[in-house]
Amino acid sequence: MERIKIKELREAKGFSQEELAKELKVKQHTISRYESGEREPDITTIRKLCKFFNVSSDYLLGIKDEYN
Fold it and tell me: Tens of pLDDT along 17-53?
């Protein structure tokens, strides 16, 4: 799977990894691993990310270039 667009979206929103981690109720190193491609989020976390960033799962996962 391609690296998902968490870092791009997080930075565009002006959030640090720690701030995003608090929003998602995960640890900062989990966000770091998602962003580096070392770890992939589960479906529940993907849903939370889509809702938080207001994007489609296809966009988040790099399937489509459009936000929604």
Answer: 999 999 999 999 999 999 998 999 999 999 999 999 9
0.70 exceeded by pTM: yes
Domain CATH for 49: 1.10.260.40
40: domain range?
6-59
Count: domains in the chain: 1
- What are the residues whose beta carbons fall under 8 Å from the beta carbon of 52, sequence distance 6 or more? 20, 23, 24
